[in-house]
Structure formats: C-alpha cells, structure tokens
Amino acid sequence: MNLSNLVLKNASLVIINDKIASINGPIPNEAKIIDGTGKWLMPGLIDMHVHVPTDGGPFGP
Questions:
Q1: What is the pLDDT of residues 27-60, one digit of tens each?
Q2: What was the pLDDT predicted at 13?
Q3: How far apart are CA 59 and CA 61, in angstroms?
Q4: Which residue of 14, 32, 40, 60 pairs with 21 in a disulfide if CB–CB is 3.0 to 4.6 A?
C-alpha cells in the first residue's frame, strides 16, 4: 500500500449546502476561506475518543 496516496496535502475543499462540492476544484469568489494550515480535515469523524460505560448505564450491557 502506498500511504502517500491516502493524504492530500495543500488541498482545497468546497462545501455547498452542508455537502462536499469539490476537492481541489475551483473556489467560488464568494467563498469563506478557512486556513487549515497545520491541521487535519477528516469528514465523518465526530468523536474520535470516547469512553462508554459498561456498568449498566444507558450504554451498558
């Protein structure tokens, strides 16, 4: 597996109506620009670290 194909560096992402419209495509003139330099963008990951109780609480056995 070539891991360099799994990460896009210095990429642009356009979101329209809460959905990904393009990756590395044209950026609309009216777009709000968010500088993500030094950050990671991972759509779909909401809470990457959570502890679920197993003591019979709402998520327990």
A1: 999 999 999 998 888 767 666 677 766 666 665 5
A2: 92
A3: 7
A4: 14
Residue 14: strand, helix, or coil: strand
Residue 60 lies in a domain: no
Question: Does 9 fall in a domain?
Answer: yes
Neighbours of 34 (CB within 10 A): 9
Q: Is residue 1 part of a domain?
A: yes
Number of structural domains found in the chain: 1
Question: In terms of pTM, does the model score above 0.70?
Answer: no
Which residues have C-beta within 8 Å of that of residue 54, sequence separation ≥ 6? 60, 61
